[in-house]
Amino acid sequence: MHNVVIIGSGPAGLTAAVYTARANLSPLLIEGWQAGGQLTTTTEVENYPGFAKGIMGPELMKEMRAQAARFGTVFRTGDVTAVDLKARPFKIVVDDEEPLEAKTLIIATGASPITLGLPNEKRLWGHGVSSCATCDGFFFKDKELVVVGGGDSAMEEATFLTKFATKVSVIHRRDKLRASRIMQDRAVKNEKIAFLWNSVVEDVLGQDVVTGVRVKNIVTGKIWDLSCAGLFLAIGHRPNTALFTGQLKMSETGYLLTTHGTATSIPGVFAAGDVQDAHYRQAVTAAGTGCMAAIDAERFLESA
Ligand code: NAP
User: Fold this and answer.
1) Which atom of ligand 1 is nearest to the CA of 117?
2) Cα 21 to ligand 1 centroid, rounded to whole Å
3) What band does 37 get if pLDDT is binned at 50, 70 and 90?
4) Which CATH architecture has domain 2-113+237-303?
5) Which of 31, 95, 142, 264 is the most exposed place for a label (fewest CB within 10 A)?
6) 38 vs 115, 142, 187, 234, CA distance in Å?
């Protein structure tokens, strides 16, 4: 039986591993077949403290993993296919094999940005296509950008991007925004932001980096190419919580609810990172809550 099983190998999971390993809890970390979380699909990370010159996302994750391994974290590659949290020890099934047993569980399965599903969007991800203005906006000084979406995230990202870009075109599939009035007003008043209504992105253009997008007006049927250096998707994130449906309390949008730090609705089960955070979604905040979850798990084991 394991003291601590951690599901997820992004900044939250790996930080939880560093802390629980250094607390001599011999954590087992289950990393999916696509390990490392969202940072493995970004290029340069300039806002993670401690790297004055910046660091490439995959390199940062490699370092975090090595740090967790150094203190004795055991890694298992595989996808968690089922969990049973009804009673302790908790049961965790990896790739449909024999269940593992755990005294505590730290869930750090993250969230996935919703994408448009276009082949070139995937190919140019990290090369002009992004879902994080805070992370990547800085690379687009004096460039023209496109943001897709009509919710609060789209307004927030578009407004933020005007700090760098000369122009930001918001492409929205309807003629009404979903965003809150205050966020809409801020964006509409911003002279650098233009709105393309009833429009969708049909393709992302560019060989090695984004050079434009193909736009279609779904009312008139008109199709045209809009040149831009970056495409920011703000059409929502989906927390990776399907495994826990019916077992843990979640928000309406599927994020795990936590109280008193990282405690979920089941004692001994903790959640860290984007899986419980719809608001900040930064590598450093994920790492911070990973540390919190490790300390919460350690204290839970001490008192159990
Ligand atoms: P959201 O509210 O779900 O908005 C998603 C937007 O993307 C909608 O306008 C939607 O269009 C559009 N969309 C969805 N799928 C699309 C597709 N396949 N193609 C084109 N457009 C698509 O998501 P969000 O903006 O990320 O916000 C999520 C939650 O976080 C909300 O509760 C929001 O209030 C909150 N939030 C708050 C703040 C803040 O207060 N500072 C900042 C960011 C987010 P339709 O409108 O047509 O559905």
Assistant:
1) 18
2) 38
3) confident
4) 3-Layer(bba) Sandwich (3.50)
5) 142
6) 13, 26, 27, 15
- CATH 3.50.50.60 residue ranges of the chain are 2-113+237-303, 129-233
Provide the token pair at 2: 């394991």
Lookup: tokens for 261: 């730090």
Strands (DSSP E) contained in the chain are: 2-7, 28-31, 44-45, 55-56, 74-77, 80-84, 90-94, 100-107, 111-113, 129-130, 144-148, 167-171, 193-196, 199-205, 212-217, 223-227, 230-233, 237-239, 269-271
Write the CATH number of the domain with boundaries 129-233.
3.50.50.60
Q: Is the CB of 42 under 6 A from ligand 1?
A: no
Residue 236 Cβ contacting ligand 1 at under 6 Å: yes
Q: Is the CB of 202 under 6 A from ligand 1?
A: no
Task: Tell whether the model's pLDDT for residue 41 goes beyond 70.
Answer: no
Higher per-residue confidence, 257 vs 33: 257
Is the pLDDT at 42 greater than 80, yes or no?
no
* Ligand 1 centroid – CA 285 distance (Å): 21
Q: Is the CB of 156 under 6 A from ligand 1?
A: yes
149 lines ligand 1 (CB under 6 A): yes
In the chain, what's the furthest Cα-to-Cα distance?
65
Could you list the active site residues?
132, 135-136
